[in-house]
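Chain and conformation:
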Amino acid sequence: MTAPLPVSRLYRACDAEALDFATTAELEPLDEAVGQDRAIQAIRFGIDMTHSGYNLYVMGASGFGRHTLARQAIEERARRSPPPPDLCYVSDFDHPTSARVLRLPAGQGRQLRQRMEGLIEELLRTIPETFRGETYQREAKEISERYRKQREEMAEELGERARAKGIVLMRTNTGFNLAVERDGKILSGEEYSQLDEAIRKEHEAAMEVVKREIDEAFEQIPEWQRQFQREMQTLDRRFAKKEIDRAVGEIESRFAEL
């Protein structure tokens, strides 16, 4: 029968008096993993490859601490390296599905973002104020007045052509009503019914002609409305762009050296 091991073989005695600390909490943590010199050297070599296209692959058994080891090496490298540039992704308006990348010195990217956020807030306030301004209101009124005058001239022309045929155009909220005029007097329905049948037919034929002329004239109105909207949009863009250019110009001058 094999003799049991003595107690002295089951543990290694440590002289606590030889230690210069009371607990391990007083000790500085180790900077490197014990016994992993080759692994650390390989990781550092991989991290120091600053060219594009290189990758670091760390393999090891579970519990080995490979993630911690790699992270510590990267953090050490970062501490002794200059800070990397800030990368700002901005819209590319010529290619809406992609973005443009701006490389700025460390810390400048955050400043640019804050300036752009402030820009939006400023424009949301100043552009409506621009549209309420005297200059914009005057030009907008001139455009509206020109198209109002165009409609008035069309109505006057239709009225003159109708009156030449013995028909009077009476404007309403929904369009025109037609009436017969004889000897400078607008006939009522009863007076019209008392006219000779041949005369009534002449007036009815004249009314049909006037109705067609009105319909033809009104076909122009949708195009006039589109032209009016285009002119108003151009006016809006011109005044908005002036305000935007001013605000953006301040940011451009701030970052011009970049």
User: Anything to note?
Assistant: DSSP finds seven helices and five strands in the chain. The CA atoms of residues 245 and 252 lie 10 Å apart.
